[in-house]
């Protein structure tokens, strides 16, 4: 049964209404009759004695004192009746006022129950969203850890591949250098500059007889000796000049080729060791009728290829980002970071409001709805200033931790993205380097095949 039903007061009948008075007077007229006057008088005196009125009342007496006593008793009864009627009216007013307050309290209780139901529903929805966000955060953290592990594995694999590739490259380079040294030594030994001297055997040396010679023979012999010395000297100078011109052409061909390789490697952004051009300059050491013309043609082709490479680099050079573009991108990134900070502050404020509303709903669930109007001593003892300060400190520390975790997660995601980009670039460079190395070390016969 409801507590208000215990004090439920129904509609009360007015004691001064005509219906009530008529019934009362009819019952009073039947109470005393001439036959029962003595008994009724005695009963009235007993009742008056019990209520403290002046007694005894002698209704048969003719004395003035007895009559005055009767009048005083009736006057007292009338005054008491008026007082009772006044008290009754006050009670009726109090009852009506209580009924009105009861209706107001019932309406307020119904309204509070509705609000509490709405708050409970909102609390459940918010709790479901919070649980979903926590699950999503856990999934993201797990995915981040897995990505970190995969990236670390890829990094170790790339480092191992890089070390293995560098080791094999150094090994091949050392072997190639040794082979080139042996070839150079053998070629230098076979193709030394040997200036041959022209020795003319004449009959003067075999059939000369100094004692039998005369002055004319001596003059002829000296003339032929001078002519032979001049011919030998001229041939020696021509051979030296020929060798110097060959060396000049070889140096020119090697310089042009080095310049062309440097331009190609600089344009492709590849660092590579320079190759030995000794084998390719072998035609410059041959006689003119056996390959000298082809050597000059090789120089012309190389100059034409160098001119082509320069034109290609000038016309088809890839466009890069300018400083203004980079500044605009950096400004855009800074603006995005500021917007992210503002959004994080808004999230923290909303979370504080949500926690405050949640605490209020929990207090209502625990039966503390009327504590704000009429707080009990126990509730006043439970809710203290120290505990409020502790709860505020805990809430601020939790908000700060969540904010730090979010910043750390964003920083880690940015680092992971940068590491993945660097790994992709390094892999591309390694692939280009391996392709260049295989292409440059492949045996070739003509310059067109080289380039």
UniProtKB/TrEMBL annotation:
<feature type="coiled-coil region">
    <location>
        <begin position="162"/>
        <end position="189"/>
    </location>
</feature>
<keyword id="KW-0965">Cell junction</keyword>
<dbReference type="GO" id="GO:0036064">
    <property type="term" value="C:ciliary basal body"/>
</dbReference>
<feature type="coiled-coil region">
    <location>
        <begin position="88"/>
        <end position="115"/>
    </location>
</feature>
<dbReference type="Pfam" id="PF11559">
    <property type="entry name" value="ADIP"/>
</dbReference>
<comment type="similarity">
    <text>Belongs to the ADIP family.</text>
</comment>
<keyword id="KW-0175">Coiled coil</keyword>
<dbReference type="GO" id="GO:0007155">
    <property type="term" value="P:cell adhesion"/>
</dbReference>
<feature type="coiled-coil region">
    <location>
        <begin position="319"/>
        <end position="357"/>
    </location>
</feature>
<dbReference type="InterPro" id="IPR052300">
    <property type="entry name" value="Adhesion_Centrosome_assoc"/>
</dbReference>
<dbReference type="GO" id="GO:0035735">
    <property type="term" value="P:intraciliary transport involved in cilium assembly"/>
</dbReference>
<protein>
    <submittedName>
        <fullName>Afadin and alpha-actinin-binding-domain-containing protein</fullName>
    </submittedName>
</protein>
<keyword id="KW-0130">Cell adhesion</keyword>
<keyword id="KW-0963">Cytoplasm</keyword>
<dbReference type="InterPro" id="IPR021622">
    <property type="entry name" value="Afadin/alpha-actinin-bd"/>
</dbReference>
<keyword id="KW-0206">Cytoskeleton</keyword>
